[in-house]
Design goal:
mainly alpha, two-stranded antiparallel sheet, 4 strands, globular, DNA-binding
DNA sequence: GAGTTTGAAACT
DNA sequence: CAGTTTCAAACTC
C-alpha cells in the first residue's frame, strides 16, 4: 500500500530488531502487502525489499512458479536471512522479536508465500475470522508451514491449518499465550489438524519437551517399525517401509505427542515454552516449523548462524546433481531420519549421509525392490554415476557438483542409476541446497514422497530467506558440519565480500565451486540476471561465495529475478531447463547415456575442454550437437544414438552431425510443446516450464493453488512420445513420432479416467519422475493415489492437494516400496537443481524392460512441455533449429484423447512432471516417489 | 593474477 | 533467421 520507501524503511529496521513502530507491525506490513498495487511495484524496483515486491507477484500470478521461486529461494543469502529475519537469539529475544514484529521483511516474505496460494487465501480467511488480529502471524504461518498447509489440504480439513497458524504465528509474533490457547483448542477439536501441525508444536516445546518428544518419537517409531517389519516378509521391504513409515510414523507420533502435549498445555505446564524450539526437534521439523522456531528463538546464536548459513547456501534448486550436496549438505535433511531410524553418526560425509539417510536407504531398498528389476548398477559405474548426476535434467551448474561428488561411490551409485538417482539427487540436492531443510530429509526419507516438505522448505527459504533452524542439526554432523562451517564463514563475510572489491571476490570466486558443489558465478555486467550467470541459469540465487558484481540474483530481488526469468523463458521456455538430459539405459548407465539438451557448438575446443557444455557436463556429444571435430571423451557426436526415443531415432549417423541430427532434445521438446499448444489450452501453464514446475511444487505445498497450472506438460507429451515410440517403435520421423506422441499425450490428458494400474504395469517404475520438477507430474499422479481414476483432467486440474495426497500416500507405510523404487527409475535432473530442478529430464524413463530411454529426451522435453504447453507461441529455439513440425491435425484428433492411447501418455505424464526442473527445487524426487506411491495404491486397489 | 580464448547468450 | 556483439567461464601464461 504504502510507498516502497516505507517498506524499505521497515526492512531496514527489521534486521536491527529495533522495535518497529506500529507501522512496522506485522499486521500493518501484511496489510500493505496485500495491496495489489504494491505488488506491482515490488517487482522490479524494489530490489531493496524483496518481501514487499513479492506479494504482488503472488497475487498477480500466484507465484506462477512456485517451483521457480522455490528454486531461487533456495539459495538464500545468509545476508538476507540474517538481516531480514533478525533471529532471536534467546528465548526472551525471541519473544521480543515476535512482539516487536521487528522483521517486517520476513513476515512480508511469508505473506507473499502465503498469498500465493488460493488455498491459503481460504485458510487465511478462516484464520482471519478466527483471529483477526493475527494477520501477520497468519502470514508467517503460511510461510513457515507450507508443508503443513499442504498436509491439511491434502489430507485434512482446513481447520488444522487454522490451528497451525494460530499456534505458530501467534507465538512467534505476539500473543504467545493466545496462540497456545488457540492451538490447544484447535488441537482438541481436530486431531488431524494436530497431526498436520506437528511442526507447530515446536514453538511450544521446551528443550526438555523436545527431548521427550524425540525420545517418545523414537520409541514410537521403533514400535511402528517393529510392526511394520513383522508385516513385511523381506528385510528390504522393511527397510523401505520403515523409511516411508518413518514419515508417517513421525506424523503419527507427533500426533500422539501433540495430544499429550496439549493435555499438558491445558494444565499449564508448557505455557512458558511457546517460544522454545528445540534444536533437535527443529531438525525434525519442517522448514516452516523451523522458521517459526527461529522466530521464537531460543536457538543459540551460533546455531542460528549456522542455520542461516546453511539456508543461505546456494542451492541448486533444480539440479539433481547431488554429488556434492550429497556429501555435505545432505545431512541436514537426513538428520531427522537419522535421529529416528538411525542413530549412527555419519562416519564420512558422503557415505554417512548416504547410509544414514533413510532416504538413501529407501532408495537403496527401492532399487532393490523395484527392481528388482534393476540390474545392479553399482559395479563400476560409480564413477560414471558421478558424471551422471549431471545427467538428467541437470544444469551445468549442478554438473560441477557432480564431479566433485564422486567421492561417495555409494551415493553416487545410487544417484546414478535411478530416477531414484534423481530422487537421491533431488534429495541430496535439497539437502545441499537447503541445509536447512530437514524437511527435505524427511522427504527423502520418505522416499521423496512428501513434496510438501520440499516445497515448504524451499518456500520458507525463499520467502523468508529464512534462517534455517535445520542447520542446527547439521552442526551435529561431523563432516557436513565442517563443510558448512566453511560456508558459514563465507557467509559471515557475505556482506563484506559483496562490498569488497569485485576483484577480490572475483579472484576468490574464480574457478571455485562452492561447498555445495554449485558453481560460483563471477558476473560483472549482467547482474546475474542473464543466462550467462550460472547461478541464475541454474535457478538458484547467487551466494555469498559468488564474486558477482551488482548482483540482482538474490532473494532480496526475488521479484526482479522472477520477472527476468520469465522474460527469458518467454523467449525460450527451455532456457532454464536442465541442459543435460540423462538417459539411462538399463544396460548401461554411463555418462554416455546423458546428453546435452541442445548440444554444443564447439569449433575449436573439439569438445575436449570445458568450453564445451557437453564435456563440461561429462556427457557425450549427440547428434544434436553442431560441434566440429568432436573428440568428446564422453562420447563423440556420431557415436550417440538415441535408440529409445522415436525422435532420437531420427538421428542418424552423423557425418556432420549437424545436419544429420534431426532433432535435439530441445527440438523434441518444442515439437511436443507445439503439439500441445495446439491441443492444450493455452491457459494451462505459465510460460516457463520451471515456473510450471514451480507452481506445481507450490501447489503441492499450498495445496492446489494452481490446479490449472498443472496441466499436462509438454514434457509429458514427450514422454508419451517416446513411450509411444517404444510401443510402436517404428522408425518414424520426428514429425510422425511427435504426432503419435501428441496423440498419446493428448489422450492422456484428455482421459478423464484412466486406469493407472495398467499404466504402471505397463510403465513400471518408469512413471516416476526423477526430478523435483516432476512434482507437477506428481500432481497428476497423485490423483492416482486416490481413487483409481485419475483423470487426465486431474493432470490438468490436479491441485496441490492432489499432490499432497500423493505424497501422503507415499508416506504411508503401507505404500509399496516398489513405488518408490519406480520413482527411482526415473532419473531426473533437477537440478534442477536438483532435486528441481528438474530433472529434468529424467530419463529414467527407461524401464529396463521397456526401454524407456525415451524418457531421456522426454525428460527434458517434459519440462519444457510443462512450461511450453501453454506457450505454443513460445518457440524454443534449439540450436539445432531443425525442427520437425508436428502435424497438428493429429492433435485434434487425439485431442479427445482416447483412453487407449492413454497408457503411454499417462506414463509420460508421470515422467513429464519430473522433467522440469530446475527446479524443484530439487524437488523432483519426491514427486516421483510420490507418484509411485500413488500408483501403488492404485495397484493395491486394482 | 592478468590476459586470452572460447562458446553460449543476447542482440540486431 | 543469420550474423554480430556481449558476456563470463575456461584456459594459458
Amino acid at each position: 500500500m504504502d510507498s516502497p520507501d516505507f517498506t524499505k524503511t521497515k526492512a531496514t529496521a527489521s534486521p536491527s530488531s529495533d522495535s518497529p513502530p506500529v507501522q512496522e507491525s506485522p499486521v500493518f506490513s501484511f496489510i500493505n502487502n496485500l495491496s495489489p498495487i504494491k505488488t506491482v511495484k515490488a517487482t522490479h524496483i524494489a530490489p531493496a525489499f524483496p518481501g514487499l515486491s513479492s506479494p504482488p507477484l503472488v497475487f498477480t500470478s500466484p507465484r506462477v512458479n512456485p517451483y521457480t521461486e522455490t528454486s531461487f529461494l533456495k539459495r538464500r543469502s545468509q545476508h538476507s536471512e540474517l538481516s531480514g529475519a533478525g533471529i532471536p537469539k534467546t528465548h526472551d529475544e525471541g519473544k521480543e522479536f515476535a512482539d516487536s514484529a521487528a522483521d517486517p521483511v520476513k513476515p512480508l516474505t511469508q505473506l507473499q508465500l502465503g498469498l500465493i496460494t488460493d488455498t491459503r487465501d481460504c485458510k487465511t480467511k478462516n484464520f482471519v475470522e478466527t483471529h483477526p488480529c493475527s494477520s501477520s502471524g497468519f502470514v508467517d504461518e503460511y510461510l513457515a508451514d507450507s508443508t503443513e498447509v499442504d498436509c491439511v489440504n491434502s489430507d485434512q480439513s482446513v481447520n488444522p491449518h487454522l490451528e497451525h497458524s494460530s499456534s505458530v504465528l501467534e507465538p512467534s509474533r505476539s500473543g504467545l499465550i493466545k496462540s497456545k490457547e488457540l492451538t490447544l483448542t484447535l488441537g482438541n477439536k481436530n486431531d488431524n489438524a494436530t497431526n498436520s501441525r506437528t511442526e507447530a508444536q515446536a514453538p511450544f516445546m521446551t528443550t526438555e519437551q523436545a527431548h521427550e518428544y524425540n525420545q517418545g518419537k523414537q520409541t514410537f517409531i521403533a514400535k511402528l517399525t517393529r510392526s511394520e517389519k513383522q508385516r513385511n516378509d523381506e528385510l528390504r521391504f522393511n527397510e523401505c517401509t520403515n523409511i516411508e513409515s518413518s514419515l508417517s510414523v513421525d506424523n503419527a507420533f507427533r500426533r500422539e505427542y501433540y495430544q499429550e502435549f496439549l493435555d499438558r498445555g491445558l494444565r499449564g505446564e508448557h505455557q512458558d515454552d511457546y517460544d522454545y524450539c528445540p534444536p533437535s526437534l527443529a531438525g525434525a521439523l519442517h522448514n516452516g516449523q523451523l522458521y517459526e522456531d527461529e522466530n521464537a528463538g531460543s536457538i543459540p546464536n551460533r546455531r542460528i548462524e549456522n542455520a542461516v548459513m546453511h539456508a543461505s547456501k546456494r542451492r541448486c534448486l533444480r539440479f539433481e546433481e547431488a554429488p556434492p550436496c550429497t556429501s555435505g549438505k545432505g545431512d541436514g535433511s537426513l538428520s531427522l531420519l537419522e535421529k529416528v531410524s538411525n542413530s549412527e553418526p555419519p562416519t564420512s560425509t558422503v557415505e554417512s549421509e548416504m547410509v544414514e539417510s533413510p532416504y538413501v536407504d529407501l532408495i537403496t531398498s527401492t532399487k532393490t525392490q523395484t527392481a528388482a528389476s534393476l540390474p545392479p548398477r553399482s559395479t563400476g559405474k560409480s564413477r560414471l554415476t558421478v558424471s551422471k548426476p549431471s545427467g538428467i535434467g541437470l544444469h551445468l551448474n549442478s554438473i560441477v557438483n557432480a564431479a566433485s561428488v564422486v567421492r561417495g561411490a555409494t551415493s553416487i551409485k545410487l544417484a546414478d542409476r535411478y530416477m531414484g538417482v534423481q530422487v537421491m539427487n533431488s534429495a541430496s540436492i535439497n539437502v545441499r541446497r537447503c541445509p536447512n531443510s530437514l524437511n527435505v530429509v524427511e522427504k527423502d526419507s520418505a522416499g521423496g514422497v512428501d513434496w510438501r516438505n520440499e516445497t515448504e522448505t524451499s518456500v520458507a527459504a525463499s520467502s523468508a530467506t529464512t534462517q534455517s533452524p535445520h542447520s542446527v542439526e547439521f552442526e551435529h554432523h561431523g563432516p557436513i558440519h565442517e563443510i558448512r562451517i566453511s560456508d558459514s564463514h563465507s557467509i559471515d563475510s557475505y556482506e563484506e565480500c559483496n562490498q569488497s572489491s569485485p576483484n577480490t571476490k572475483r579472484k576468490r570466486a574464480s574457478r571455485n565451486i562452492d561447498s555445495d558443489g554449485c558453481k560460483r558465478c563471477n558476473c560483472r555486467k549482467t547482474k546475474c540476471l542473464k543466462l550467462y550467470c550460472d547461478c541464475f541459469s541454474a535457478g538458484i540465487y547467487c551466494d555469498t561465495t559468488c564474486a558477482c558484481q551488482e548482483c540482482f540474483n538474490r532473494p532480496e530481488y526475488e521479484d526482479t529475478v522472477l520477472e527476468t526469468r520469465q522474460k527469458i523463458e518467454s523467449r525460450n521456455p527451455l532456457a532454464f531447463a536442465p541442459k543435460v538430459v540423462e538417459r539411462e539405459d538399463e544396460s548401461q548407465f554411463t555418462p554416455a547415456s546423458a546428453r546435452h539438451k541442445r548440444g554444443c557448438n564447439c569449433k575449436k575446443s573439439m569438445c575436449l575442454k570445458k568450453y564445451c557444455e557437453c564435456y563440461q557436463a561429462s556427457v557425450g556429444c549427440s547428434n544434436g550437437c553442431r560441434c566440429e571435430g568432436c573428440q568428446n571423451a564422453y562420447g563423440k557426436r556420431g557415436e550417440f544414438v538415441d535408440v529409445d526415443s522415436g525422435v532420437s531415432e531420427e538421428v542418424i549417423s552423423d557425418k556432420d552431425g549437424t545436419e544429420i541430427r534431426e532433432s535435439t532434445f530441445d527440438e523434441k521438446l518444442q515439437m511436443v510443446a507445439t503439439r500441445k499448444d495446439s491441443n492444450d489450452s493455452p491457459s494451462l501453464t505459465p510460460l516457463t516450464p520451471s515456473l510450471q514446475c514451480f507452481d506445481d511444487t507450490h501447489n503441492v505445498s499450498k495445496s492446489r493453488v494452481l490446479p490449472a497450472i498443472c496441466r499436462p506438460s509438454p514434457q509429458s507429451a514427450l514422454t508419451i512420445i517416446s513411450h509411444h515410440k517404444n510401443s510402436t517403435r517404428s522408425p518414424q520421423r520426428n514429425s510422425e513420432n511427435s504426432d503419435n506422441l501428441m496423440d498419446t499425450s493428448k489422450g492422456l490428458l484428455d482421459v478423464g479416467s484412466y486406469d493407472w494400474r495398467e499404466d504402471y504395469e505397463n510403465i513400471g517404475l518408469e512413471t516416476t519422475s526423477p526430478r523435483c520438477y516432476a512434482v507437477p507430474t506428481t500432481c497428476h499422479l497423485t490423483p492416482l493415489s486416490g481413487p483409481g481414476s485419475l483423470a487426465i483432467t486431474s493432470s490438468a486440474s490436479l491441485t496441490t492437494r492432489d499432490l499432497t495426497n500423493a505424497s501422503q500416500v507415499q508416506l504411508r507405510p503401507g505404500s509399496h516400496c516398489l513405488l518408490s523404487g519406480s520413482s527411482l527409475h526415473w532419473r531426473s535432473s533437477p537440478v534442477t537443481p536438483m532435486h528441481r530442478f528438474g530433472g529434468m529430464k529424467s530419463f529414467q524413463g527407461f524401464d529396463s524392460e521397456k526401454g524407456n530411454h525415451d524418457l531421456l529426451q522426454d525428460d527434458t522435453p517434459e519440462i519444457l512441455k510443462d512450461t511450453s504447453i501453454p506457450i505454443k507461441s513460445v518457440k524454443v529455439s534449439s540450436p539445432n533449429k531443425k525442427r520437425v513440425s508436428p502435424p497438428h491435425s493429429h492433435n485434434h484428433e487425439l485431442g479427445t484423447s482416447s483412453s487407449g492411447g492413454l497408457r503411454s501418455g499417462r506414463k509420460f505424464i508421470l515422467k513429464a512432471v519430473p522433467s522440469f526442473p530446475p527446479l524443484t527445487p530439487c524437488i523432483g524426487s519426491k514427486g516421483s516417489s510420490t507418484i509411485q506411491n500413488m500408483n501403488n495404491p492404485l495397484q493395491d486397489k486394482g
